[in-house]
Amino acid sequence: MVSPPHEAMHRIFQHDPGLFSRVSRFLGVDIPAPVRATALPTDLTEASPVERRVDTLLRLETAEQGAFLLAVEAQGKKDPDKSASWAYYVSYLWTKYRLPTALLVVCQDYATAGWAQQAVNSGPPQLPTLTLRPLVAGPHNMPVITDPEEARADLVLASLAAITHAAEPVVNAILKALSTALRDTPEDIADPIIEFTAQGLGNRPAKHLWRNLVAVDLSFYKSYISEEIRDEGRAERGAEDVLFVLEQRGLDISDDVRRRVTECGNPEILRTWLARAITAPTAEEIFGDE
């Protein structure tokens, strides 16, 4: 199954194709900003029954270098079979489009990044017929952006910095800087950044910090994550109200009742239980016939 961090690590380049030129300086190369960018189909399958699909494929054109293709792959762990797939992608795209093709691999941990950036030869040592040398973006070379002004200057890069450092302690400072920078940002610009960042953090502890920052600093946004956080907040307060009324009435609250109330995330159901809690002879009877 494709995970949210996997999707965020490559789709952020679809959202802002010019991001690659800004990232490239951290990778030891200098790619000019594109004057045109086009997202291309990612399905590289031919008649062969084996499906081959690159994560993101962009056609970039610069004033200095002309057009070239950029294949972006999100890689979450070491995979000994991946190098052969990447070599296929690059050679196939080169053949199909007759354009120079670059491969960027985005990682979230040092071990995977170190593995991904190793050069791989398709032939024996004395006959390196085809050599694959991916560019790799990860925690080892992506900037640590903890200054809100620096984050405001390039919100997409700051989001990528948070995504690639998602497992590092420094991610908390990056997220705080990014949330501060987003306060004065128009909603249509801020929303994608909020979502990419949330997806890229996955289920790591930093996601909880990001959700709280969005709820507090960016409460006026209507993105799905901010709405989700506010719904959870309403549910949490509703559960507390139900238990408070039962306690004030001196009713015995069993562990099972407490668990059912605190685990309920539906504000409508909690309101029903709260109304029953005012008159129910026992705590268990707030659930009615459910």
Lateral strand order in the biggest sheet:
1-2-3-4-7
Oligomer: single chain
Class from helix and strand fractions: alpha/beta
Q: SSE order, as H and E?
A: HHEEEHEHEEEHHHHHHHH
Tally of distinct domains: 3
Mean pLDDT: 86
Distance between the termini: 35 Å
Count the beta strands.
Answer: 7
Which stretches of 5+ consecutive residues score pLDDT under 50? none
Relative strand content:
5-15%
Number of helices in the DSSP assignment: 12
Please characterize this protein's 3D structure.
The chain has 290 residues and is an alpha/beta fold. It contains 12 helices and 7 strands. Helix 1 (4-15) packs antiparallel against helix 6 (155-164) and helix 9 crosses helix 10 (224-248).
Layout of strands and helices, then pairs:
Elements: H1 4-15, H2 19-24, E1 36-39, E2 56-62, E3 66-74, H3 82-97, E4 101-106, H4 110-116, E5 120-121, E6 131-132, E7 135-137, H5 148-153, H6 155-164, H7 171-182, H8 187-201, H9 206-217, H10 224-248, H11 255-263, H12 267-277
Parallel strand pairs: 3-4, 4-7
Antiparallel strand pairs: 1-2, 2-3, 5-6
